[in-house]
Design a protein that fits this description.
42% of the residues lie in helices and 24% in strands. The chain is an alpha/beta fold. The longest helix is centred in the middle third of the chain and has 20 residues, at 85-104.
Length: 165
């Protein structure tokens, strides 16, 4: 007998300090991890290191966790700020690696601005420094048994689940 396909919702907080969450249609947390990264020698002449998405590991994790399910992914649009060149470069490199994996696995995805999911799930009027605490507080209320690795990825997945149901 063939297994029934379930819809799953993937939330990705982009970047080397980001996270990935997969929720079932019922809201069960199927997977919640920090983005797998590797530390590599930088490409500049000066001795330095930088973090990159660990492509094979992320590919295998997503491949193993989407199985025969019907996935849909929302990935947070990266911060692009010419005044923060190194952070922007890191975010765009992470996005490119992640996007290639999604395309290879044929996982449909769309980009989402942080303001969109925050408006739907967090209280209004929060200042920048209050957003991380609020996100953690909301995740603790919605998923009280879940150990939080990255609150943003859980909330992105939850927002995806709510609007794609």
């Amino acid at each position: 007998m063939e297994r029934t396909k379930n819809r799953i919702f993937i939330g990705i907080d982009n970047g080397v300090t980001g996270g990935i969450t997969i929720l079932s249609e019922s809201g069960f947390v199927h997977l919640h991890i920090a983005t797998p990264i590797k530390n590599c020698l930088n490409y500049t002449k000066k001795k330095a290191f930088h973090n990159r998405v660990n492509y094979p590991e992320l590919y295998d994790i997503l491949f193993d966790n989407i199985a025969n399910d019907i996935p849909f992914c929302m990935i947070e649009r990266p911060m692009v700020n010419p005044g923060r060149f190194q952070a922007t470069t890191s975010a765009l490199r992470a996005l490119e690696a992640t996007e290639i994996i999604l395309e290879e696995l044929k996982i449909p995805y769309q980009f989402i601005d942080s303001k969109e999911w925050q408006k739907a799930l967090l209280p209004s009027g929060l200042q920048k420094e209050e957003l991380k605490k609020a996100a953690n507080d909301v995740v603790r209320r919605l998923f009280p048994k879940q150990e939080i690795v990255n609150a943003d990825s859980i909330l992105i997945a939850e927002y995806c689940r709510r609007i794609k149901k």
